[in-house]
Amino acid sequence: MDELEIFRRRYDRERRARKEAEVFAETKTRELYETNQALQRLAATLQEQVDERTAELRRIAEEAVAASEAKSLFVGAVSHELRTPLNAIIGYGELLAEELTELDTGGELVSEAEKIVQAARHLHALVNDLLDLQKVEAGKLVLTFSDVDVESVVAEVTDALGAKLQDGANALRVTVEPAARRLRTDELRLRQVLYNLLSNAAKFTREGTVTVCARPALRAGRRGVVFEVEDTGAGMTPEQLGRLFTPYVQVDEVLARRHGGTGLGLALTRRLCQLLGGEITVESESGRGSCFRVFLPAAA
């Protein structure tokens, strides 16, 4: 075989190899193009679905906001409409009780008049809690900070709930440590927090002990006061503790039917503690009682 033949064969092999390479490259290029087109169609479809879903979620969010605003307006309007006649019932009930006492008609009629006043006050407190919770959720609750006499506030709350504690034949123990007697916070909201906690303790405790304690504390570099409200009452299971601060939810439906309530008090209490820069925690054991701890920092 001469050199010319060798060269010709080598040339043919290289030409076939080049041809095969061109065919391979063309095939792969076509496959890549088709794949790219498919990906673009898929991307367009996904983008369309995302746009549709985004629009749907935006519509749902707008409807939820509108429904929440409508609910707030409705609750606010109804609550305000209830407060006026309730104030009248409380006022006339107190006058009736005073007149019956002066007429010396016997304790039974006076007791019935006082029951009217107590029921109206209870409903009035529920209406106030509902309004406050709505304000908190809407970010419209205004706080007023001042130097608060803690010992005086605790005394006012325990005095206000004295009858309720006595109804359950409960003993009350109160301790306010000297270093915890002053705190810069919102006095009205502090009173509300303590009232809700002590009222709950009195409600679910029978022939037991309710303890209120205020002591100085330091949390995360912040000085403040820890308020403890402890009882030897019904207590709660871990499952009940999990839904304790959920608005409008009663942790025990049986006890709720027996003692009343709307599930607003503790939910509002936690929101108020957070607004005041503090926190609320609870320890409880079913059948042995509960202990609520509220830490409120001293406002600057």
TrEMBL record:
InterPro entries found in the cross-reference section: HATPase_C_sf, HATPase_dom, His_kinase_dom, HisK_dim/P_dom, HisK_dim/P_sf, Sig_transdc_His_kin-like_C
Stretches assigned to the Histidine kinase domain: 77-300
Keyword match Kinase: yes
Keyword line: Coiled coil, Kinase, Phosphoprotein, Transferase
Reaction it catalyzes: ATP + protein L-histidine = ADP + protein N-phospho-L-histidine
An example Gene Ontology CC term for this record: plasma membrane
Superkingdom field: Bacteria
GO molecular function: histidine phosphotransfer kinase activity; phosphorelay sensor kinase activity
EC number: 2.7.13.3
PROSITE patterns: HIS_KIN
Coiled coil: 29-63
The name this protein goes by in its record: histidine kinase
Organism of origin: Nannocystis exedens
